[in-house]
Automatic annotation (TrEMBL):
Pfam families: ACT, ACT_6. It comes from the Bacteria. InterPro entries: ACT-like_dom_sf (IPR045865), ACT_dom (IPR002912), GcvR (IPR016867), UPF0237/GcvR_regulator (IPR050990). Residues 5-79, 90-170 form the ACT domain. SUPFAM superfamilies: ACT-like (SSF55021). This is Glycine cleavage system regulatory protein.
Length: 170
């Protein structure tokens, strides 16, 4: 089986996920993993599917025909053997919303050669304080060669600088 990663975006409407799932199924594919969301009236997502190599092109062509949905198909990679010795950490970031939080946190991770596997962010109104609250959850892959205590120390320093809470869990 060949692993494909689909990125999808379009105006949100009922039936978009079903349309993609129908096409994947009709071409003998299997829906493996996905992250899908409605954001500001748009439907966006990332979907991992597997399909036999001889059906990749016809699946790609069929997906391009979904009305109102832009689908990009990328070849997936097989799991790296070195990744088996990597560790995962989960970060929770919470604080008053302001520009630059994602940029600053991801810069620390990049500086330690961590790779983000999954990141979810959202903002919400804070009724008691009259502002916006920013919250993020990040799952990052830590190479075995990286000193996790140094990563945590840099994140603690950053949290104090940009006035957010950052919790690191292994």
């Amino acid at each position: 089986m060949t692993s494909l990663v689909l990125t999808v975006v379009g105006d949100d409407r009922a039936g978009l996920v079903a349309a993609v799932a129908d096409i994947v199924d009709a071409h003998g594919g299997n829906w493996e993993n996905s992250e899908l969301a409605e954001l500001a009236g748009a439907f966006a997502g990332v979907i991992e599917v597997s399909v036999t190599p001889d059906r990749v092109d016809e699946l790609r062509d069929a997906l391009s025909g979904i009305d109102g949905l832009t689908v990009a198909v990328h070849a997936g990679r097989e799991a790296d053997a070195a990744a088996a010795v990597d560790r995962d950490i989960e970060l929770t970031v919470l604080g008053n919303d302001h520009p630059g939080i994602v940029r600053e946190v991801t810069a620390v991770l990049r500086g330690h050669d961590l790779s983000i596997d999954r990141m979810t962010t959202h903002t919400s109104e804070t009724a008691m304080f009259g502002g916006r609250l920013f919250e993020a959850t990040v799952v990052a892959r830590v190479p075995a060669s990286v000193d996790l205590s140094a990563v945590a120390a840099d994140l603690e320093r950053l949290a104090a600088e940009i006035q957010v809470d950052v919790i690191v869990a292994e």
